[in-house]
Amino acid sequence: MNEETHARRKLLDRIREDRLVTRRDYLRMLVTVSGGLLAGTAAVASGIFRRHGDGPAPAKKVADAVAPGESFTFSYPGEDDPAIGVRLADGSLVAYSSVCTHLACAVLWIKDSGNLECPCHDGVFDVGSGEVLAGPPPRPLPRIRLDERSDGIYATGVTL
Amino acid sequence: MTHRSPIDPREVSRDHPDIAASLNARIGIVAVIIVCQLWALTAALDAWLGGDVGAVWWLLVFQAAAFVSALLLWIASPRS
To answer: Phi then psi for A158, rounded to 5 degrees?
Structure first.
């Protein structure tokens, strides 16, 4: 018996020895997958995915003064929570998480269009409300509450 | 030496078509349940990130019910 035939026989023997998968086995595998999906949802509910603004959010000074139509960036409440603030033409102040709700690219203030835009996939957010106007983002931007005081602009909390 | 499974699916199909059909139907139903569970998982993640915690808990209840249904279908499946 040459070497190739011997290897071929060994392979066939190994295949024959494999246990056949029954329908009950398939059913058991599917039930295991079902349990895994339940565990995944339980993990989501337990809060393993961090959201912008989770945890304490004490008031923090984020800017001194901003002219109408201009924007400023800051981190709030944590150093890993980038945010963008804009003073609108009517003088009001708004601020949002600058992490796009699509794939977490940085959101930019585009003065010409008057919207917040994500350059990665052309997501567009309304600067007045944070709602999605166009593109693939599935959710509005988390809003950061601002308070204008005599010594500057303070962030005071986050609304998802 | 060769090893034979105590249950050969081909023999079940040939000798017990009722059992094979029952198992096929259960596999199909559980597959549909899993598709619904995949949807529920993505919906739960979207709701969590959007701050809708109430929806997350309802979806978790749905997932638990779906899993229990799949488990019962498996436990109550006929044996050859």
So the answer is: -125, 135
Match 């909390």 to its residue by tokens: A157
Third-level CATH fold of A60-159: Rieske Iron-sulfur Protein (2.102.10)
Nearest to A37 among B46, B63, B79 (CB): B63
Nearest C-alpha in B relative to A25: B74
Q: Spell out the alpha helix ranges (H) of A18-67.
A: 23-46
Q: Crossing angle of helices A23-46/B17-49, nearest 10°?
A: 10
Domain that holds residue B28: 18-75
Delimit the CATH 2.102.10.10 region(s) of chain A.
Answer: 60-159
- Chain segment A115-147, per-residue pLDDT in tens: 999 999 999 999 999 999 999 999 999 999 999
Report the Cα–Cα distance between both ends of chain A, in Å, rounded. Answer: 73
Provide the shortest C-alpha distance from residue B68 to chain A (in Å): 9
- Find chain A residues with C-beta within 8 A of B20's C-beta: 23
ipTM over 0.95: no
CA A93 to centroid of chain Cα atoms? 24
- Counting DSSP H helices and E strands in chain A, the numbers are 2, 10
In a domain, B5, yes or no: no
* Residues in chain A closer than 8 A to B7 (CB atoms): 20, 22, 24
